[in-house]
Specification:
This protein has 341 residues and is α/β, with parallel strands linked by helices. It is built from 13 helices and 7 strands. The protein folds into 3 domains: 7-102, YqgF/RNase H-like domain (Nucleotidyltransferase, domain 5, 2-Layer Sandwich), CATH 3.30.420; 115-208; 211-328, no CATH class. 55% of the residues lie in helices and 12% in strands. It is globular.
Length: 341
C-alpha cells in the first residue's frame, strides 16, 4: 500500500522556527515552535517527509541540510504563500499558509542550489553591489565638480582623462581640505575598479573550469558574467519543463490581463531575477547593435517594431536556447533549425 509523505510547513527565522502539519494517523493539527539549535534534531528523528519553506535568507542552507537527512525540501516564492495567510500575521499563521501552498498544484518552486552555485551567485551579488556604489561615487563627484564650473565628459575614459586638470583648476579656488576629499573620492573610485576587476577574474576562473558555463557562452550575446550567473541560478535544468517556462521564470514573456474571455498582451512581466534578465537584455542589445551578423528575424522585427521590443524578443530566444543546451547536453550551433518534437 502506497503511503503519502507528511507535509510540514516551516516558517524560518533567525532563532525561532514555527512548524505546522497534520498527523496522518490521528488527524491532529500540530503547531510546534523550535529553537534554531533543535530544528535539525527534530527532523533527524522523523520519518522522511516533505518540508515546505519560503525561499528567503537561509532557506537554501536548511534545504540542503534537510535533504541530507532524507527529507524532501520544497522552497516556495513568498508571493505564492502570501494569499493563504489568514487573520493577523504571525509565525503560526505563516507556517500554516506555507503548508497550504505546498499542496496546491501549479505552484512553481525555487530550485535548491548547491553551495558552489550559491558561492558564484555571491560573487555576482558582491560585484553588483560594488558597481552600484562606484556609479554613485562617480555621479556624486561629477555633481560636485559641476557646482564649480567643471563639467566632465561623458563616459569613464573621458572623465579619467579630464579629472587631473579639473582638480588642478579648482584647487586654486577651493580650500585644501575640500580638494583633498575630492582627490580621495577619485582614488576610491580607482580602488573600486580594481575590486570589481578582481571579482570578475575569479568568476572567469570558475567559468573556464565549468563545462556548462563554457558551452552556453558560445551563444551570441552571452558572455562570462551571463553564463556563470545563469548556470548558478538555474540549478537543475530539469526543474523547467521547457525553454518557454525558463524564459517565463526570468520575466521575459508578456504579462496577461484578461476578463470575460478577452485577453490583452501587455509588456513583459518582469518576474524572476532582475539581475539575470538585465544581463540577457544587455547582451541581446549588443547583438542587435554591434554584431556583424545579427539574426535576420530580429533585424526584421526591429524594422517594424520599437528596438526594445526586438531586444527583449532576442533575449527571450537566448534564454530558451540556454535551457535547450543545458537540458539536452548539446553544444551551440549557429545554423541549427529547431523542429517540433
Amino acid at each position: 500500500m502506497k503511503t503519502t509523505r507528511t507535509v510540514v510547513g516551516v516558517d524560518t527565522a533567525k532563532r525561532v522556527f514555527q512548524l505546522h502539519w497534520i498527523d496522518m494517523e490521528t488527524g491532529e493539527v500540530v503547531d510546534l515552535k523550535l529553537s534554531r539549535a533543535k530544528f535539525l534534531e527534530h527532523f533527524a528523528n522523523r520519518a522522511p517527509c516533505l518540508v515546505a519553506m519560503e525561499a528567503c535568507g537561509g532557506s537554501q542552507h536548511w534545504a540542503r541540510r534537510l535533504r541530507e537527512l532524507g527529507h524532501e525540501p520544497r522552497l516556495l516564492p513568498a508571493k505564492s504563500v502570501r494569499p493563504f495567510v489568514g487573520g493577523n500575521k504571525n509565525d503560526a499563521h505563516d507556517a500554516r499558509a506555507i503548508w497550504t501552498a505546498a499542496q496546491l498544484p501549479g505552484i512553481k518552486t525555487v530550485a535548491v542550489k548547491s553551495e558552489e552555485q550559491q558561492a558564484i551567485l555571491a560573487l555576482h551579488r558582491m560585484r553588483q553591489q560594488l558597481v552600484k556604489f562606484r556609479t554613485a561615487q562617480i555621479n556624486g563627484l561629477r555633481g560636485l565638480l559641476t557646482e564649480y564650473g567643471e563639467v566632465m565628459p561623458r563616459g569613464r575614459a573621458g572623465m579619467r582623462k579630464a579629472m587631473p586638470d579639473a582638480l588642478a583648476r579648482v584647487s586654486e579656488r577651493l580650500p585644501a581640505m575640500v580638494i583633498d576629499t575630492l582627490r580621495e573620492q577619485w582614488a576610491r573610485i580607482g580602488r573600486l575598479d580594481e575590486e570589481v576587476g578582481e571579482i570578475e577574474r575569479r568568476i572567469g576562473v570558475w567559468h573556464r573550469g565549468n563545462a556548462d558555463s563554457r558551452r552556453i557562452a558560445e551563444i551570441p550575446g552571452v558572455g562570462v558574467l551571463t553564463a556563470t550567473a545563469v548556470v548558478a541560478a538555474m540549478g537543475d535544468p530539469a526543474a523547467f519543463r521547457s525553454g518557454r517556462e525558463f524564459a517565463a521564470w526570468l520575466g521575459l514573456v508578456p504579462r496577461h490581463d484578461g476578463t470575460g474571455g478577452r485577453v490583452r498582451m501587455l509588456g513583459i512581466s518582469k518576474r524572476g531575477d532582475r539581475y539575470l534578465r538585465t544581463l540577457l537584455i544587455h547582451g541581446a542589445r549588443a547583438v542587435l547593435t554591434s554584431s556583424k551578423a545579427p539574426p535576420e528575424w530580429a533585424v526584421r522585427l526591429a524594422e517594424r517594431r520599437p528596438m526594445n521590443v526586438a531586444t527583449v524578443a532576442l533575449a527571450n530566444k537566448t534564454a530558451r536556447t540556454i535551457w535547450a543546451l543545458l537540458a539536452h547536453d548539446r553544444t551551440y550551433q549557429a545554423d541549427d533549425v529547431s523542429r517540433p518534437a
